[in-house]
């Protein structure tokens, strides 16, 4: 039997499987794709919870995986890096000028 995710709405999605699951078997794979609207940071959590008839130990029935992406910013040059970039561009312009300047005869 397949997973049922039809009765949920983003951003919180809940999927259920009617079971039962025999010992040693696995449920079918469940793939969720999270699309985020850049720019900015985002945070996704995935929690799996199981219930079993007669299970008296509820502390081990769920687990959560967290994934986050820090906000992306444009790279910033240090003062030394900026000075080196200006010097390099100046040299490129100077040598470019020398190559294109008319030769004296």
Order of helices and strands: EEH
> How much helix is in the residues?
10-25%
Q: What shape does the CA trace take?
A: rod-shaped
What structural class do helix, strand and pairing data support?
alpha+beta
End-to-end CA span: 89 Å
Taking strands numbered 1, 2, ... along the chain, how are they ordered across the largest sheet?
Answer: 1-2
Main sheet summary: 2 strands, antiparallel
**Mean of residue pLDDT?**
77
Question: What Rg, in angstroms, do the CA atoms define?
Answer: 29 Å
Number of helices: 1
Unreliable parts: none
Number of strands: 2
What does this structure look like?
- It is a single chain.
- Strands 1-2 form a two-stranded antiparallel ribbon.
- It is rod-shaped.
- It is α+β, with helices and mostly antiparallel strands and 105 residues long.
- The chain is built from one helix and two strands, in the order ββα.
- The chain has one helix at 79-100; strands spanning 42-49, 62-69.
What can be said about this structure in brief?
With 105 residues, this protein is of the alpha+beta class.
SSE layout and pairings?
Layout: E1 42-49, E2 62-69, H1 79-100
Antiparallel strand pairs: 1-2
């Amino acid at each position: 039997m397949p997973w049922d995710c039809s009765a949920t709405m983003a951003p919180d999605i809940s999927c259920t499987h009617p079971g039962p699951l025999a010992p040693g078997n696995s449920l079918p794979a469940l793939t969720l794709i999270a699309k985020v609207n850049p720019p900015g940071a985002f945070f996704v959590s995935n929690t799996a919870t199981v219930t079993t008839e007669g299970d008296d130990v509820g502390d081990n029935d769920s687990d959560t995986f967290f994934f986050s992406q820090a906000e992306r910013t444009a790279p910033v040059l240090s003062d030394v890096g900026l000075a080196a970039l200006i010097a390099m561009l100046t040299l490129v312009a100077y040598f470019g000028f020398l190559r294109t300047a008319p030769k004296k005869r």
